[in-house]
Every structure is written in C-alpha cells, then in structure tokens.
Amino acid sequence: MPALTADRPRKHERLVRILDELDAESILLTRPENLAWYFDGARTQVPIGGASVCSALVHRDGSAIVTAPENEIERLADEEIAGAEFQRVPWYAPFAEAPHGVPTDTDAVGALRAARAALLPAERERYAELGHSAAAAVTAVVRDARPTMTEFELAADLARAVHGIGAAPAVVLVAGSERGGVQHPVPTSAPLGDRALVVITAVRHGLHASLSRWVRFRGAEPSASTALREVEADVFAATRPGRALSAVVVDIAAAYARHGLGSPDRPAWLAHHQGGPTGYLGRDPKASPHTDDLVAAGGAFAWNPWVPHAKLEDTVLIDDAGPRVLTADPVWPTTAVRGLRRPLTLDLT
Question: Nearest CA to 326 among 204, 149, 225, 148?
Fold first, then answer.
C-alpha cells in the first residue's frame, strides 16, 4: 500500500499559497507532473509521456478526492496514491472536469512550476538514489557495447537496464559514429562504428534523471569536447539561485562564442536547445531567451550543451554553493573542470 511521506504537508503549504493567489478553496490537479509531485511520485500515466488517467480535487484543508475510471482506480488506490478518497467513473466517462468555479492546474502553470522547483529533503534523497542508479546502469551497459552493435540493440539494453533499477525509460537515444551530428538521435539500425553517444532519462517517483555518455572503440575524442566542457562550466557558474533563466541563456550563448564554438553567422547555441530545470518533467521548463522563471535554490537542472559530435549532460542540484552532480558513477572516467569532476569518453579501444 502507498504511504504518506514527510514532505506532503510542506507541499500542501505551497499549494495553499497558490489557492490564496487564486482566491479559491480547492484546485483540480490534472497534469502528470503535478499529480506526481503532490502524491509522492504517483504513476498516473499508462503510456510513457501520456496523459494522466485520473484527476485530484485538492481542498484547502488538505483533503483530496481522486477521480479515476473503473479500469484504473484499484491500481491507483492500492499502489500509487495515499491520503485521498477515491471516486470511480465508467472507463468511457470524463474524469478531469472541475466543479463550477474551481480552478485547475492549467490556471496556475507558473505557480505550480515554482512550487515543484525547490526540492524538499525527501525528494532530494530519492533523486540522489535515482541518479546514482541510473548512472551505474548506463556504465554497465556501455562497457559491454561493441562497434558492430546497432543503435537499436544498444538502446534495447539501455531500456532494459533502466527498468532493472525500477525506473521507466522516458528517453533513450543512441548515435553511432555516423550520426554524432544528430541533435536527438532516435535509434536506428545503423552500427555504432568507431564511437557512440548514449542518452537516457530515467523516471522514478516522478523524478527525471537525465545523462549523456560517450564511448569509443577506435580513434580519439574530438577536440570540441574540451571546449564544450568549458562551456558547461560557464553554464553551471551562470546558474545561480534568483537569476532569470533568460539571463542564464544569454550567458550560455556568450560561453559558446568565448570558447571558439560556432561562428557569428551560425551561433552554436542555436543549433540545439540547451536544457534547463528538471524534476517532475524532463524540462521544467525548457530554458530559452524568453523564459522568465527564476533559478530556484535546491532546484534540479539538466543542461545539455551540444555541438556536432560532442555533448554533455548530467542532472545536478543547484544551491548557493554550486552544482551537485546526481548522475555520477565513480567508476566512469572523469576529468576535473574548475573543481568539478566531469565525464570523459569511455575508452574501449
């Protein structure tokens, strides 16, 4: 049976402040990220990345009524959601309609995103455990990779490894040596060849842990990798609590140019999105020059600086002291970049 965790009362305090802003007594939660956040990581999606299969009417006094279809309600009540009453409807009936005058989470997108951003101690502990497990799972798979494997085959091994740590693979990307210039390399039947990139996002307790790693079977690491690590260090330095994400993105653009990546007519940072805050969504939100959200102290970030054939990505917690890498495996080769250990290419030559 699911159990209430120590962070629920503090989450409810944040929700009550949103109710105050809305001048409301209740709010209807319908989005997977909000349901997972409030209900301690509840899995309310059946297709990965799909819509929620329930809604939750949460009242100012802390009581909640979860409405779910007949074919979902037992699983949700027995395995996922604690501290709520349940209301069943036929499987063909709507379940996400708000009572008259009651706001929904779509009326408070920014406020709820801010409420999710600063992770509580229990969430930090879950995240650290997930990050370590995800990184170790990637290492175990990649060190057994072979240049003759296809991208599909390596992706299958990665997905199996993510399920093996009790998580769901929300993202699995693989690029062999011929596809290292593809920003989002959805796997194909191409062989890995001389060098390969793997990217995963593993989800557990609603939290998203993302990381990218390179492996090589022949040849050398591209020279751009060294410059990109300096870009990433600048990104981490720019990600300070209280700063607007739009200001961080301006610093990111300058970092690429400062380290010799791209050109004035083709700025490198425009070739791929740069990531941003994470947590109960893979990007929460995706940072852009127009994103006004502030960097939250205690927030999680997954920046992914990229140029063709070079990419870096880890999930980190940001505090006043700087980044703490969650997706680190101590056996993976690293180098020190301004005091932080950053991953190198795994050499299997």
Answer: 204
Helix (H), strand (E) at residue 202: strand 195-204
**Does the pTM of the predicted model rise above 0.90?**
yes
User: What range does the domain containing 305 cover?
Assistant: 121-347
Instruction: Check which CATH number belongs to the domain holding 98 and give it.
Output: 3.40.350.10
The whole-angstrom separation of Cα 47 and Cα 70 is 17
Tokens 């990419």 correspond to: 311
Which helix (H) or strand (E) is 234 found in, with range?
A: helix 224-238
Q: Which two tokens stand for residue 23?
A: 């001048």
Query: Last residue of a domain, which of 116, 140, 162?
Result: 116
> What tens digit of pLDDT does each residue of 4-58 get?
888 999 999 999 999 999 999 999 999 999 999 999 999 999 998 999 999 999 9
Among 329, 326, 304, 311, which residue's Cα sits nearest to residue 139?
Answer: 329
Domain annotation covers residue 184: yes
Tokens standing for 184?
Answer: 């989002």
Residue from 120, 116, 126, 186 nearest 158 by CA: 186
Picking from 91, 319, 286, 304, the residue whose alpha carbon sits closest to that of residue 184 is 304
What does the chain come to in residues? Answer: 349
* Amino acid of residue 158: L
